[in-house]
Amino acid sequence: MKGKKQTLSTAESLTGGKIASALVANPGSSEYYSGSIVAYNATLKEDLLGVSRDIIEKNSTVSEQVAKQMATGVMERLQTDYAVAVTGNAGPTADHNDKDPGLVYIAVASKNTVEVQEFNFGQPREKVINRTVTKAFELLQKKILEN
């Protein structure tokens, strides 16, 4: 991304900023990483990322549709070339929408496309969060290499 002068933003829910933290741990990341919005609850997803209340009510915050809107929302707000967004239920119990622990949606957006993938990383909570971070980077790398 540095060589192409491209930029990245992130929108995180279940990972609580771990993706952002991993990015800024690298020297020179300010050349491509613009920032993150950590929106752990539905209200912040709506207010800060522009996720539709109707989408949340129809699909829950743990859904493909919400992940997609989180990615496009952060990319638009921070004006970046790419965005990664994650939402899910890290557990240990089913959430208020009865989504199983370990269920995660990861969205990767570029100027032309948004791709969302569903995963179930099982348990325990820490494993779900760490696997989400790792998989988000894998999907981002794939998207960058495609473009």
User: What is the percent of helical residues?
Assistant: 40-55%
SS field, number of helical segments: 5
Number of domains in the coordinates?
1
Total number of beta strands:
5
Overall average residue pLDDT: 95
Low-pLDDT sequence parts: none
Tell me the distance between the termini.
Answer: 11 Å
Main sheet makeup: 5 strands, mixed
Task: Just give the CATH class.
Answer: Alpha Beta
Can you walk me through this structure?
This protein is α/β, with parallel strands linked by helices and 147 residues long. The protein has a single domain, classed as CinA-like (Maf protein), CATH 3.90.950. It contains five helices and five strands, in the order E-H-E-H-H-H-E-E-E-H. It has a five-stranded mixed β-sheet, with helices on both faces. Strand 1, helix 1 and strand 2 form a beta-alpha-beta unit. The longest helix is centred in the last third of the chain and has 22 residues, at 125-146. The chain is globular and about 45 Å long. The protein starts with 7 loop residues before the first strand and ends with a helix. The mean pLDDT is 95.
Q: Would you summarize the structure shown here?
A:
The protein has about 150 residues and is α/β, with parallel strands linked by helices.
Question: Could you give the topology of this structure?
Answer:
Layout: E1 8-12, H1 18-24, E2 33-38, H2 42-49, H3 53-59, H4 64-78, E3 82-88, E4 103-110, E5 114-120, H5 125-146
What tags apply to this protein structure?
alpha/beta; Maf protein; 147 residues; 5 helices
